Amino acid sequence: MSIYDYAVDNIRGEKVSLENYKGKPMLIVNTASKCGFTPQFAGLQNLYDEFKDHDFEILGFPSNQFGQQDPGSNEEISEFCQLNYGVTFPMFEKLEVKGSSAHPLFQYLSKEAPGILGSKAIKWNFTKFLIDSNGKPVKRYSPQTTPDKIEADIRELLKNDASTPTTNS
């Protein structure tokens, strides 16, 4: 299994196979528009600007499961992200990221990259998953980990991915 086995709807409601991102390292983030961590959108956009020319992607997945901090429609969320933070990285439809109704992608990520003390549950908005170019989660970051603190890991991943041939399976 890898993230390429999943499909999600983008923020406009169009089905997207994550296989479209095959061969690209990425950061997957569950987001919210009305959270204390919402300013991390600026840092995420900075990371995207810094690394997008190196085939690095950031995928944002809004969720309203934590304190009802993303109650808006997908259109409102998209507009908020673009107007307030200039977000140009791909955003997807609001979905559930924890519990029995979590989207299968987030069930997979939670299982493959557990949090502190082996916890599988996503605890809050802006949990981040670093994914290698083979679609495998390599690291999970807490909501408190700001995007600038992930930059060195992204550089290392890009360096390692450049020296490791991707497998086609």
What would you say this structure looks like, in words?
Residues 1-159 form the Thioredoxin domain. The active site is at residue 35. One of its GO terms (biological process) is cellular response to oxidative stress. This protein has 169 residues and is α+β, with helices and mostly antiparallel strands. It has one domain: Glutaredoxin, CATH 3.40.30. It has helices at residues 40-51, 74-85, 104-112, 151-163; strands at 7-9, 15-17, 26-31, 57-62, 128-131, 137-141. It starts with 6 loop residues before the first strand and ends in a 6-residue tail after the last helix. The relative contact order is 0.21. The model has no long low-confidence stretch (mean pLDDT 89).
Summarize the structure.
27% of the residues lie in helices and 16% in strands. It is α+β, with helices and mostly antiparallel strands. The mean pLDDT is 89.
How many domains? The number is: 1
Looking at the structure, the CATH topology is Glutaredoxin
Looking at CATH, the homologous superfamily is Glutaredoxin
Number of helices: 4
List unreliable stretches of 5+ residues. none
Which strand-content bin applies to the residues? 15-25%
Globally, the shape reads globular
Describe the secondary-structure layout.
Elements: E1 7-9, E2 15-17, E3 26-31, H1 40-51, E4 57-62, H2 74-85, H3 104-112, E5 128-131, E6 137-141, H4 151-163
Parallel strand pairs: 3-4
Antiparallel strand pairs: 1-2, 3-5, 5-6
Any key phrases for this structure?
alpha+beta; two-stranded antiparallel ribbon; 16% strand; Glutaredoxin; globular; 169 residues; four-stranded mixed beta sheet; 6 strands; single chain
